[in-house]
Design goal:
The structure holds 2 protein chains of 2 kinds. Chain A is an alpha/beta fold. Chain A has helices at 14-26, 37-46, 63-73, 88-96, 109-122, and strands at 6-10, 30-34, 51-55, 78-83, 101-104. A 5-stranded parallel sheet of chain A has the order 2-1-3-4-5, sandwiched between helices. Chain B is an alpha+beta fold. Chain B starts with 15 loop residues before the first helix and ends in a 5-residue tail after the last strand. The chains are: A alpha/beta, B alpha+beta. Chain A binds chain B through residues 13, 15-16, 18-20, 22-23, 57, 59-60, 83-85, 87, 104-110, and chain B through 299-300, 302-307, 309-315, 317-318, 321-322, 337, 341, 384-385, 387.
Chain lengths: 123, 514
């Protein structure tokens, strides 16, 4: 699959992208950071990514909507879902929609880097 | 009526003087106000319904008694009249007979005896009933008796002379007896006519007396019935007013409405006791509902707190990892991020604490703008998550209004959360201020949501009324909000157009000149 090192980070918190980008780039990934889910969906239509790291609750389309879109249109893309408010329901929903992993905030950068590395091998 | 205003919609704004005089704790305050109201109710002279009822019935009874006594007297007098008439008529008859026999010239001593007997009876009667006779009538009988005695003497002597049982009067004697008899007959008949008239009059008096009694009883009963109906109906109407204003959320105590007290005053005292309990209960429910509102915010708050915490955590991690490699400028930016994200987290905690903190539910002059801004901060995340944009046009300089900060935050939060829930697909929440009256400030909160169906609109302030799924809403939000706002002398009005959205006006009395 082309571009197996392409990662998209989608979170309306600017700092999350700012911190994940250098850590992932250090591991050799090409990272695109989005804080707006509409813009991210536009980008996903143009380009396929190996891994998508997305927040759930956002203004406009939610992380679940993006996950659903990705699984329908680019099933090869692995999706890591991060959320500030983890409930059993959202965890089940993410599993059912085919997410690679469900991570609750606050997380460790190291853990996310590990998960991205692991899932990118599946992509 | 010196009562507190019974209409629930427009309540008296609390007076500043009231509060200044009572700076103590609310429950102490409440107890004092309750005591004052109870004292005012009980210090009036007592005039109980029971006493009034007994007095009225006693009056009726005495009237009936008086009539019965008068009737008895009249009956007694009628009976003695009839007796008199019978006696006099009998005597009259006998005199006629004696006159007839005297005309014939034959007169037996038996006839004279019967006439004497009748005259004696009449005399006895006349003596017993001196009132019924005229002076000239009194002369009549002795005259008659004298002549009869004389005639009897004559008869006795002629009997002794040999005529057995039948005497013969001399013409002179017969003439005298006749003329006396005629006089007696005339007088007696006049007496009979007079007595008949008197008896008639007495009977007529008895007749009209009964009618008078009936009429006066009718009047008396109408007066009693009317006065009792009024004495019952007016307080009942007043109490109906109290219940509807209590149902509307106005728990101000009942004040005296009349100059005296009765059983209704006892009821008012009991209702005031109940109102004090209801107020205490209401305050507890308000606290509970506030926690419920916080509960609905939990997901938003957790999300909102976890975001800055996560930012702090990952920035600290990046800083630790890159301590050797990061540039001085990058380290500075990381530290700045940590600093501002900590601020952000503590702001969230502070606004939540502000909201849940216990406060005196007394009205104080409030800055509406500050209340609204802090409420927006509480609801901000809920709005963001539901794609709701806030369009606020609240001027910074607003006259202060009467209210308690947290209770008013709760009111606005309830209304804003309802508005957000009415727009599941997102939209804009418009908040602005309107001034309908110079002594009021109104906040208009308008959403672009589904609106409220007309059949639901009248019920939205009912306690426990909810259109949400079971477990999702308590149905207390709006009812408590209205209770809170009315307590401060304000009102909430809701207008809605299904499909277009809902507009809520929250009006509070201004605490200073507008």
């Amino acid at each position: 699959m082309p571009g197996t090192k392409d990662v998209m980070v989608l979170d309306d918190e600017q700092i999350v992208g700012d911190r994940l980008r250098p850590a992932l780039e250090q591991e050799g990934f090409q990272v695109e950071v989005f804080t707006d889910s509409r813009a991210a969906l536009e980008r996903l239509k143009q380009k396929s990514f190996a891994v998508l790291v997305t927040d759930v609750k956002m203004r406009g389309p939610t992380g679940m909507d993006v996950l659903r879109y990705v699984k329908e249109n680019a099933p090869g893309t692995q999706v890591i879902v991060i959320t500030g408010y983890a409930t059993i329901e959202t965890s089940h929903e993410a599993d059912a929609l085919g997410a690679f992993q469900f991570v609750a905030k606050p997380f460790k950068i190291k853990d996310i880097v590990k998960l991205v590395t692991k899932s990118s091998r599946l992509a | 009526m010196s009562d507190s205003n019974p209409s629930g919609a427009s309540l008296r704004a609390p007076e500043a003087g009231d509060r200044a005089a009572q700076p103590g704790r609310t429950d102490v305050d409440l107890a004092g106000r309750l005591r004052a109201a109870q004292h005012a109710l009980l210090s009036r002279p007592r005039l109980s319904m029971q006493v009034r009822l007994v007095a009225s019935l006693l009056l009726c009874f005495l009237l009936c008694c008086a009539f019965a006594l008068v009737s008895l007297d009249l009956l007694h007098r009628t009976r003695s009249r009839i007796h008199l008439l019978q006696t006099v008529e009998r005597l009259d008859d006998r005199i006629h007979r004696v006159r007839a026999l005297a005309n014939e010239g034959i007169l037996s001593s038996g006839d004279l005896e019967r006439m004497l007997e009748g005259a004696k009876e009449a005399e006895d009667l006349f003596r017993r009933e001196p009132r019924t006779l005229r002076q000239e009538d009194r002369q009549l009988l002795p005259n008659l008796l004298r002549h009869v005695q004389a005639a009897r003497l004559l008869l006795a002597t002629s009997e002794a002379a040999g005529h057995s049982g039948v005497g013969v009067l001399s013409p002179a004697q017969a003439a005298e007896l006749r003329s006396t008899g005629t006089d007696a007959n005339q007088s007696l008949e006049a007496l009979i006519r007079r007595e008949r008239l008197t008896a008639d009059r007495i009977l007529r008096v008895a007749e009209s007396g009964a009618l008078v009694l009936l009429l006066s009883l009718l009047v008396l009963f109408s007066v009693i019935t009317l006065s009792f109906a009024r004495a019952l109906a007016a307080p009942l109407r007043r109490f109906k007013g109290y219940t509807s204003r209590i149902a509307g959320g106005d728990f101000s105590f009942i004040r005296p409405a009349r100059k005296y007290r009765d059983e209704f005053s006892d009821l008012a005292v009991a209702v005031n006791q109940m109102l004090a309990e209801l107020r205490a209960q209401q305050d507890r429910v308000v606290r509970g509902a506030k926690l419920a509102a916080v509960g609905t915010l939990t997901s938003g708050i957790a999300h909102e707190l976890n975001n800055p915490l996560n930012n702090i955590s990952i920035t600290a991690e990046a800083l630790m990892e890159g301590l050797a490699t990061l540039s001085q400028e990058e380290k500075w930016r990381h530290l700045q991020d940590i600093y501002f994200e900590t601020e952000r987290a503590s702001e969230i905690v502070k606004s939540l604490l502000d909201f849940t903190r216990k406060e005196k539910p007394d009205a104080v002059p409030l800055d509406l703008n500050e209340i609204l801004q802090s409420t927006f901060r509480l609801a901000q995340n809920e709005m963001t998550l539901n794609d709701v944009a806030l369009s606020s046009a609240v001027p910074g300089e607003l006259p202060r209004v009467w209210g308690a900060a947290n209770q008013m935050r709760q009111v606005f939060l309830n209304i804003i959360l309802n508005a957000i829930q009415a727009m599941p697909k997102g939209g804009t929440l418009f908040v602005s201020t309107v001034t309908h009256h110079a002594d009021q400030v109104c906040v208009e909160i308008r959403d672009e949501g589904a609106g409220i169906p007309p059949e639901v609109l009248p019920h939205i302030f009912d306690p426990f009324f909810t259109t949400k799924e079971p477990g999702k809403g308590t149905g207390l939000g709006l009812s408590l909000s209205l209770g809170i706002v009315r307590k401060f002398g304000g009102d909430i009005q809701v207008a809605s157009e299904p499909g277009k959205g809902t507009t809520v006006h929250v009006c509070l009395p201004a605490a200073e000149e507008t």
